Request: fold
Amino acid sequence: MKKKVVVGMSGGVDSSVAACLLKEQGYEVIGITMQTWEDEERAFVEENGGCCGLEAAEDAGRVARILSIPHYVVNFKKEFREKVVDYFITEYLSGRTPNPCIACNRYVKWESLLRRAMEIGADYIATGHYARVEKLPNGRYAVRNSVTARKDQTYALYNLTQFQLSRTLMPAGDYTKDEIRSIAEKNHLPVAQKRDSQDICFVPDGDYAGFIRRAANKELLENLPEGLPREIPKEGNFVSEDGRVLGTHKGIIHYTVGQRKGLNLSMGHPVFVSELRPKTNEVVISDSDVFRTRLTCSRIQFMGMEDLPKPRRLWAKIRYAHRGEWCEAVRTGEDAISCTFEHPVRAVTPGQAVVFYDGEYVMGGGIIL
Reply:
């Protein structure tokens, strides 16, 4: 009896080819497009890209017809709003810089989609991520780097659970991007040359601050952590590390640690954002670039390792595009890991994830404090 797999089809070439490959491998394939955000105007989507709305569903449907597989559009807007959008806004208002794709992967693309897949009797879910899932000799599942480092997406998958990984297939991880496009061309898929979405799907124009101003509702503002203003941050002070006022900023949601451009400060030399202080609405400015050798993270999720009982030398990435650096990771509390880097790393940013690797395998990670 053929195994049944639900493929999350975003309308892009990667998930389309994932569905194609799994059908060729003999699976019973069902395509589901997750409707996660508002239905964008077509002209806006065509100009900016995006994977959340009508165009994505239409492209996925065309691919499904060519592959002769069933395709459904399922409404996940409530889950997406609560787990991704509200989280994104709250983190920015709290002076942190989140990665919403990580939250979306865990709570929407996996948790919600897997639950729906199991309700219809599927054995697995699959996506078009450039990563591989493997079971390690210690019995735990882990995501492994894809065959192409240029497109590797393991960083954004570090917080998937063992159960989720045991029910996951990622066929695109065995191919390069060029090979994926070639497979799409060979199978006459209309998305073969569709460009990748480069920005956060629900903010395709890249104006995060503008989105936050539009999308932060009264209920969200009233439930912000204690001590934070119950409003969208207004203008405030740029201050030096020793407390001197240097100028006026546009609101802390416009800034992130390590930022140099767009500050509009005439200091006569380059300056950098070193800290955001949401309670006092201050942006701290440093005269020197922001390198650190230590960080602490919480909201720990273990993957390839079950725990961290003693210090361990691991490769760590502190943002999606970070090449990585060796560190010594030490468990310092029930939900805390401290790591000391062998060489300083730039712009350790609260709210971003630090992800730990042993070779090609993700061991776990957490959110930088």
Observations:
- Residues 40-50 have pLDDT under 50 and may be disordered.
- The radius of gyration is 22 Å.
- Residues 100-119 form the longest helix (20 residues).
- Residues 102 and 156 are 5 Å apart (CA to CA).
